[in-house]
Design goal:
alpha+beta, about 25% strand
Length: about 325
Amino acid sequence: MGASSKPSRNLALELVRVTEAAALMAAHFMGRDDKEAADQAAVDAMRYLLNSVEMEATVIIGEGEKDEAPMLFNGEVLGKGGGLQLDLAVDPIDGTRPLAQGRPNSIATVAAAPAGTMYDPGPFVYMDKIAVGPGAKGAINIEWPVEANLNAIARALGKRMRDLTVIILDRPRHADLVARIRKAGPRIRFIDDGDVAAALMTSWPDSGIDVLLGVGGTPEGVIAACALSAMGGEIQGKLFARNEGEKQKGIEMGYDFDKVITMDDLVSSDDVFFAATGITDGELMDGVRYHSNGATTESIVVRGETGTVRFIESRHSFEKLETISDLPY
C-alpha cells in the first residue's frame, strides 16, 4: 500500500484525551453548586491538553470576546503547531447547571474541522433549532409550522404521532411551542440545560428521543452539527435575536435572521472530528466514576470522513497521569 492511500490521521482519538481531562477535572464539582469553579477546572484541563496536540487550531466557538477570565475565547489559537490548520469548537461543560446541581446529562465536548469551514455566529448566541436522527433526515424544514414537521418526522420514522418524543429546553420562551406540541400529540422531554447532548440523542438509537426543537445556543448548534454530520442526522437553525436592538446590530453586521442555517452552513466539510465525555450520568454516557487513585470515563468519538462512531471506556490512573501532567487530578 502506497503512502498516498493510507488513511489520514484520526484527530478525534487525540481530542478524546481533551474531553476526558475536562470531564475528570469538572466532575469533582458535581452537586457542589459552584458553576464557576467547575467551568474553570474544565477550561484549564481542555486548554492544557489542546496545546499538546500537533495542530494549529483557531477557536471559532468558545467563550466570546477575550476578557479577564481565562476562558477558551473566540480567536484563541491552540495546539503546538506543525500540524493541521483547523477551526475548533469547544464546550468544556455542556450542562454546567446540571453538573452544579448534581443532575444528569452534563458532558465535555470538542469539535474540529478544516480551517475556514465552521460557521461563526459572532456575538449572536441564540438560534431556533430543529434536529433529527438519520431516520428523519431530509424530512424537516425549520420554516414549516411545528405541526407539519412533527407529521413529517412521524411518517419518516413510521411512528404514530403520540409515540414521538420531543426534547426541548424548559424555558418560558417555549410556552407557545410547548402548547402546540401538546395539542399535536407527541410526548415531551424537558431539559434544564445541555442541548448538545440533546441534539446527539436524536441520532443515538437507544435514547428514545426523536427530535430536538426550540431556541438554544448557537455555539452548541455548531458543535452538534459536527457530530450529527457524521452520525447521519440533521440540524437546521435560524439566528434568534433576544430583542430589537440585537437584531438591528446583526443586520448592520451582515447577519440574516431569516436565513435557514443548514448543516452545510454550520460545518461545510465532511472531514470533521468530534469527541464528548460524560461528566454526570446521562442517556448517552455514564459520568465519571472515581475509584481508588483513579477514575473511569465513557466517551463518544466521531470521525466525519468515515462516519465511524466509537464508544470508548477508559480507566485512568491519577498517580501515573500526575507524573506527566501539571493537572491536579
